[in-house]
Amino acid sequence: MPTADKFITAFKQVLQDRYDADAEKLLAAYVQNRAWTAYMLSNNSDDNGVLKDTAEKLRQFDESLRYGVEWYTIDAVFYGGENLLEAGEYPSRLYAIIEHENSDDVGHEMWKLLHWRCPLKILIFYDWNEEDKRTENRRRFMQNTLCSLKKMHSAVSQFQAKENAEYLLITANRKMMMPCLSGVTPWTLVRPSPQSL
């Protein structure tokens, strides 16, 4: 089963491999929200997205693991096991659900993660780069967002049975990240414990 550690390793490797293979394509996609979302999430057989390639790397731990996008408004899912119904994909196992947010609407993405039962929940979002932090809201975006996510988790936890899910928050700078990919990884990985979230 994919864990946060296994996901992080595969995710970093996929991004580094893509940068090494075609840095221009990666950089061109990164500066346009729709293009970057497609680059991250694509399930197109001609041009896999980063998350689909990450799922492929994780298949070494469970060959039944598959990748899907836009499942009941979840951006991406890693799933496997047996199909429980004849029509469509109704797997017996959800390994990870992933939400990817390019704009400021991180709370809506977290809300979806909080209400799904799954052992690994991943939220990928972006902070403002320093030169764009001209307003107080932008300067405090990351701090305010993390505080809001913690409050959401606390409020939802009061009404749900205790879960043993692992949460992984992956953040990067909106524009400055890509030139850093060769060498230093610019992603910030936050693995809050259930108590701290």
Sequence-ordered SSE layout with sheet pairings:
Blueprint: H1 4-30, H2 33-41, E1 43-44, E2 47-48, H3 50-58, E3 66-71, E4 74-83, E5 91-101, H4 106-115, E6 120-127, H5 136-139, H6 141-157, E7 166-173, E8 188-190
Parallel strand pairs: 5-6, 6-7
Antiparallel strand pairs: 1-2, 3-4, 4-5, 7-8
How does this structure look, described?
By secondary structure, the chain is of the alpha/beta class. It has 6 helices and 8 strands. The chain has helices at 4-30, 33-41, 50-58, 106-115, 136-139, 141-157, and strands at residues 43-44, 47-48, 66-71, 74-83, 91-101, 120-127, 166-173, 188-190. Strand 4 (74-83) and strand 5 (91-101) form a beta hairpin. Helix 1 (4-30) packs antiparallel against helix 2 and helix 1 runs antiparallel to helix 3 (50-58).
Task: Offer a concise description of the structure.
The chain has 197 residues and is α/β, with parallel strands linked by helices. Helices cover 39% and strands 25% of the residues.
Anisotropy-based shape: globular
Strand line-up in the sheet with most strands = 3-4-5-6-7-8
Biggest sheet descriptor: 6 strands, mixed
Distance between the termini: 23 Å
Q: What is the arithmetic mean of pLDDT?
A: 85
Find the count of extended strands (DSSP E, 2+ residues). Answer: 8
Order of helices and strands: HHEEHEEEHEHHEE
Instruction: Please compute the radius of gyration using only Cα atoms.
Output: 17 Å
Name the helicity range: 25-40%
What percent strand?
25-35%
Enumerate how many helices there are, as a single number: 6
Low-confidence stretches: 177-185
Structural class: alpha/beta
